[in-house]
Design goal:
The protein has one domain (2-316): NCX, central ion-binding region (A middle domain of Talin 1), CATH 1.20.1420.30. It has 318 residues and is mostly helical. It is globular, with a radius of gyration of 19 Å. It is built from 13 helices and four strands. α4 (66-91) packs parallel to α10 (220-231).
Length: 318
């Protein structure tokens, strides 16, 4: 038990320091090449912090286990939006740009609806099957490529923070990004493995571990990165990280998983899909409720309440 506690703390330390270096390196790259911190968060950081979900889902698909591949992504996106953005907004209210409001947030909603429509063909239209076929996977992957191309075309540039006086050399920024990602992924895996061992030693059920530790564990890189971004007052990087991670999860990870092995929606409940859609819609409402065009502390508290209600529902149904 003592060794597992030490490994738990070591994993946590790697995640914290990895997130710090990732944010610094990504911000330096953004300034160097004239890209906004949001775009860097949407692409490089968003994809990098979703690496744990990709590994878990692809392995699950290869083993023919749709529950792992699909449940991991659905749970991760809910965790990303409601818990991570909720916590980040409490630490640092995040401005929502015109581009976020008119393009990025609506696109996240459209992609979520598309996933539900493709996954519930039999229920909604009376043909096919409830799940993602290889054709559906190819559609999602094609949309991912289109989305990434459009994302890199965004020229909206964030102003540098007041404390950023000395520019970071490009090679050093790349090393910081790669090192930060490595720390996040390895530290996150170490944290999840040791936390799972401790929970089992304490007699906690496997299902409860899956819903809490594992679901949250694969999203730990996003949480650490967003908190680090909030502390450094880089709200757009945090927002871009979550939207990018969600898009990456839905289009690339589920698209790739469906190509590896068709995914059945049989064990995904309407409540799970409803909360997934509600979480994407909640992000849109923050543009118009409270402080307009700001993801403020009131929005953060509302997100956390939704997440707590969903977790309570899952625990009651254990």
């Amino acid at each position: 038990m003592f060794l597992q506690v030490v490994l738990l703390l070591a994993g946590l330390a790697l995640v914290v320091f990895g997130a710090d270096y990732l944010v610094e390196g990504a911000s330096a790259i953004a300034r160097r090449f004239g890209l906004s911190e949001f775009v860097i968060g949407l692409t490089i950081v968003g994809m990098g912090t979703s690496a744990p979900e990709m590994v878990v889902s692809f392995i699950g698909a290869a083993q023919g286990n749709a529950d792992i591949a699909l449940g991991n992504v659905v749970g991760s996106n809910i965790f990303n939006t409601l818990l991570i953005l909720g916590v980040t907004a409490l630490l640092l209210p995040m401005p929502i740009t015109a581009g976020n409001r008119k393009k990025d947030i609506p696109m996240n909603i459209v992609i979520t609806i598309l996933l539900i429509v493709l996954g519930l063909e039999m229920t909604l239209f009376g043909f096919g099957a409830d799940g993602l076929s290889r054709v559906d996977g190819a559609i999602l992957l094609t949309l991912f490529i289109v989305y990434m191309v459009q994302a890199f075309r965004q020229k909206e540039q964030a102003e540098p923070s007041p404390e950023e006086t000395k520019p970071v050399k490009p090679w050093l920024a790349v090393v910081m990004i790669l090192g930060g990602l490595a720390g996040l992924v390895y530290g996150g895996n170490l944290f999840v493995d040791s936390a799972t061992s401790i929970a089992k030693a304490l007699g906690v059920s496997d299902k409860f571990i899956a819903i809490t530790i594992l679901a949250g564990g694969t999203s730990m890189p996003e949480l650490a990165t967003c908190v680090a971004a909030a502390v450094k007052k880089k709200g757009q990087l945090a927002l871009g990280n979550i939207i990018g991670s969600n898009v990456f999860n839905l289009l690339l990870i589920l698209g790739g998983s469906a190509l590896i092995h068709p995914l059945s929606f049989v064990d995904i409940s309407y409540v799970d899909l409803g909360v997934l859609l509600a979480s994407s819609l909640a992000l849109l409402t923050s543009c118009f409720v409270g402080r307009k065009n700001v993801l403020d502390r009131l929005d953060g508290a509302f997100f956390l309440l939704l997440w707590a209600a969903y977790m309570t529902y899952l625990i009651i149904r254990l």
